[in-house]
Amino acid sequence: MGLIKMKLPLIVGFGGMNAAGRSSGFHSYKRMVSDVLSDADMASTWQDLARRMGLSETDSLNADIIDAIKAGTLVRRIESFDPDNLLYQYKASLQSSDAITFTLRKSKLPNRIPDNWQVEEQGSKVTITVTGELGALLEDRVSFPVTSGGNIPTGFDPAKLYQSRFHPRGLSLTIYGASDALNSLGMDWDTILQHIEPDQVSVYAGSALAQVDENSLSGMLAAPLTGGRVSSKMMALSLAEMPADFINGYVINSIGTTGTNMGACATFLYNLRQGMNDIQQGHSRVAIVGNAEAPVVADIMEGFRVMGALAEDAQLKALDNSDVVDNRRACRPFAENAGFTMQKRHNLWC
């Protein structure tokens, strides 16, 4: 039997950002094993992180800067929201022996007036008298049971590096990750395009959870119940395949195959397999594959928490037999643990 010739996919570049720093140049890996590397080996990584985190504009380092980098990277106390001051609303039924009276702007008056309301107009305002019960939502601030997470390095905001207009966090990470990966190739992207056809580039990148924050799905669903407004961007930017579309639209302008394969925590691997298949079958010469997740938001974390998936502070304290939670040790995949730890990250391979 003759041998079947199949093209061999090669990884020629990678990039992105996670809690340990930038993927390209192995900086994030070096940060994770920094305790066993020499000062000389770590110098470039400390310098890179110092610039990303806004701690230094030069290559000069000192102990204070390195300490700040260590404190602001890896798994740590959540920074993307305040776990001790989380907005929460409780349903309540207000009752009084006398009628309940309050004033509203006329423009805020409901379209459907409840039967037990009496409305008296007073210019631009109305006085409302309620007989019986009044349903209400009472605003409160609560402590979230999970305070550990893998936020990207403190002070780093990819949305400030390009014309980001109300882009979800995961898509801002996508733009940065794609640029980082292409810059790691060792040659200009335009040089590569000179040797291939325009449709010989595949892009497979997405998000297992789609985009869920105030600028995307979460904001769109919450707006009618919180007095907000749904924007024209929210629906489109919430799509799970949007990272691939953003790479095409903002970075490479490809006309090749674009999409994503969703598979929970294996989404990146499914996209990698799809890119490899395209190259092996001759459909593409270049494949960009990746995954973008920005789940360190209270909405998503509450969903995982109630199903028992996340390590809660009380459980971590019990593991350590301590009254103080050690956020740094929340992620223990190879030891006694209490659950998963959420992390923001975006990784791309070329």
From TrEMBL:
What does the UniProt keyword field contain? Acyltransferase, Transferase
Q: What is this protein called?
A: 3-oxoacyl-[acyl-carrier-protein] synthase
According to its UniProt record, in which pathway does this protein act?
A: Lipid metabolism
**One annotated Gene Ontology cellular component of this protein:** cytosol
Gene3D superfamilies the UniProt entry points to: 3.40.47.10
What's the short name of a Pfam family annotated to this entry?
ketoacyl-synt
User: Which InterPro entries does this entry report, sorted A to Z?
Assistant: Beta-ketoacyl_synthase (IPR000794), Ketoacyl_synth_N (IPR014030), Thiolase-like (IPR016039)
Q: Output the GO biological process annotations, alphabetical, semicolon-separated.
A: fatty acid biosynthetic process
GO MF, any single term:
3-oxoacyl-[acyl-carrier-protein] synthase activity
Q: Where is the Beta-ketoacyl synthase-like N-terminal domain?
A: 177-323
The UniProt record lists the EC number as 2.3.1.41
